[in-house]
Amino acid sequence: MNDSSLLLPTPAAEHVNSPGLESILASGAFPGRSTLFVAEVAQALRITKQHVINLIDEGFLSAIDVANCSNSKSGATTRRALRIPVGSYDNYIRSRAGI
Q1: Which site from 18, 21, 65, 72 is most exposed, i.e. has the minimal number of CB atoms within 10 Å?
Q2: Within 13 A of 75's CA, how many CA atoms are on the CB side?
Q3: Dist CA 29 CA 43 (whole Å)
Q4: Contacts of 24 (CB under 8 A, 6+ apart)
């Protein structure tokens, strides 16, 4: 048995030409955009907004908080206003597809 018989196709090879994958990448689903709203990502992935926030908090998706998250007078936190960069969204999709 030679070493080449042990090589298996990578998951990426199976998905590179997948027509479904292109439609959910940012270039297909959100053309011309640089950031995405949590609700848009949730809808595209068919998950809840809270699940998207959990993915951000767990480090699977990166996000930019465009709100001022602390009140300088009282130190109290306010509601976050998160935007997901399209690159982060695409990286997450590719990682889930094994690419």
Answers
A1: 72
A2: 0
A3: 11
A4: 44, 45, 93
